[in-house]
Amino acid sequence: MIVPRLPPVEIPFRSSERASLGVEWELQLVDRETRELSAGAVEILEQIRPEGAEEHPKAKHELLQSTIEIITGICTTVAEAKADLAGTLAEVVGAADERGLGLLCAGTHPFTDWQTQQISPKERYLQLVERMQWLARRLQIFGVHVHVGVRAPEKAIPIVNALTQYVPHFLALSASSPFWKGADTGLASARSKIFESMPTAGLPYQLSGWDEFETYMATLISTNAIESVREVWWDIRPHPGFGTVELRICDGLPTLDEIGAVAALSQCLVEQFDGQLDRGYVLPTPSGWVLRENKWRAARYGLDADIVVDEKGTVRPVRQAILDVVEDLGPTARRLGCAAELADVERVLAVGASYQRQRAVAAAHDGDLRPVVDSLLDELRDGLPADGPAASGTPIP
User: What's the fold here for domain 121-381?
Assistant: First the structure.
């Protein structure tokens, strides 16, 4: 029997201005006394909602009531995106302070049990939990998403495919989830493995172009796997409604300095690939087995990972690979006005990624994780520390 091929669903791509930028930052609400995650998003978002508006334009609900996501508008530079986030953050911090709540960001909370958390009263999230059950209920995880504008749909899939080779770079640099429910997982990024359990999350499929993307989405929608493209949560994905390529691989980042670093890296890579397509280049599509292996290595070992750089099995330190990419992107960063933020990648490498800083704090307090929460609260307020386990020579677990 010949099965007719399912016609694709036409997915309009709202082309964006090249290299435009948007950032989403998922923040944790914690009780300042207990340091536990604490519900408060409903009340805070109602308090800061502009009069006459249905919701705040740049502060949103997430799955859990202990989470608030703040988002930028459409920005041109990384500095503009950071300033945009800082303005909304100040509003949320003020309302949270009145309730005895603090704000921090990391890929996971060090010790709160996900079973204690309340789901946000939004139909979308209630339906998600009903459909996914345990997989969704335990999504007590937090990330940073970076959108970079792309002018045409035919560019989006080749750029997504090419960006996948940098998954270990982004994940190692941003890894901030070593702890889960009070225990050290032994991973640099437990969040990435938790999120992978969702059926439409993880590494993107390497598709041939926009037509195949539309066909794949048609299959998922017609078989009731998803209701819309929004429910495909790949580590890197095209976002048709925004006209962007969205990098979702990063763990939650504690400081605006680190957000600026990964945003600059994202913007520069997309801009470089966009220009190469204009010049007629065919962008690389890495082998699936290499991508899976490298993502695992970054999740497990963070900045100490050795990643596979070709199909022959050649490996090199991800730390050096990150430095090489930063050097290569220097001219692009200067053209985009984000050279200072791209240079902050090296600051993170010098001080230590968040998972390393968290472990160093825990080790200094005999394994007590409450000081880890305090350190994350301080970092969100004060920025990337000048010193850390990598800079001081302290052994990093």
Answer: Creatine Kinase; Chain A, domain 2 (3.30.590)
